[in-house]
Amino acid sequence: MDKDTFQQEVYNVVAAIPPGRVVTYGQIAYLVGRPLCSRMVGHAMHDVPDGMCLPCHRVVNSQGRLAPCWTEQRALLEAEGVTFRKNGCVDMKKCQWEFMKEQIQ
């Protein structure tokens, strides 16, 4: 799979994340058939083209931590009803998207 195809598949998954839910980089990697490539997902998220309206704020790390240096991410998630634990991480038990591969296609 080339880089452009990988990125487009990542963006398709991100576009499908419903409001009020979050997905991890690792989950996205799994969904695009590259389960060991969560860092590549992070790079794809960093490289989202200007003007592409994706809900990137719904992507967090496996512990529910937010993207570093993106102060608006928490407010965007809270506006959708995402809850946080006392340590500042997303409450993954309540807010993680229980997806099915068929929903993404």
TrEMBL record:
Keyword entries, A-Z: DNA damage, DNA repair, Methyltransferase, Transferase
- Annotated SUPFAM superfamilies: Methylated DNA-protein cysteine methyltransferase, C-terminal domain
Looking at the Swiss-Prot or TrEMBL record, what is one Pfam family this protein matches? DNA_binding_1
Per its record, the protein catalyses:
a 4-O-methyl-thymidine in DNA + L-cysteinyl-[protein] = a thymidine in DNA + S-methyl-L-cysteinyl-[protein]; a 6-O-methyl-2'-deoxyguanosine in DNA + L-cysteinyl-[protein] = S-methyl-L-cysteinyl-[protein] + a 2'-deoxyguanosine in DNA
| Residue runs in coiled coils | none
Give TM segment ranges: none
> GO biological process: any one?
DNA repair
Tell me which residues make up the Methylated-DNA-[protein]-cysteine S-methyltransferase DNA binding domain.
Answer: 6-82
Q: Please name the GO terms that the record assigns under molecular function.
A: methylated-DNA-[protein]-cysteine S-methyltransferase activity
Q: What is this protein called?
A: MGMT family protein
Q: Which organism is it from?
A: Bacteroides muris (ex Afrizal et al. 2022)
